Amino acid sequence: MRPTSPSIPERDFTLEALKQSLRVDGRGPLDMRSVVIDFGPELGWVECSLGKTRVLAQVDAKMVKPPEERPLEGIITIHSEISPMASSDFEQGRPSEEEVLITRMLEKVLRRSDAVDKESLCVLAGQRVWHLRLTMHFLADAGNMLDCACIAGITALKHFRRPEVEVIGDEVTIHPPTERAPVPLSLHHTPFCLTFAYFSEPGTPPILDPARLEQTLATGTLSVALNAQRELCVVQKAGGVPLAPNEIIRIIDLGIVKVKELDALVEARLKEDWSGRTVEVR
Question: Contact, 139 vs 53, CB < 8 A?
Answer without folding.
Answer: no
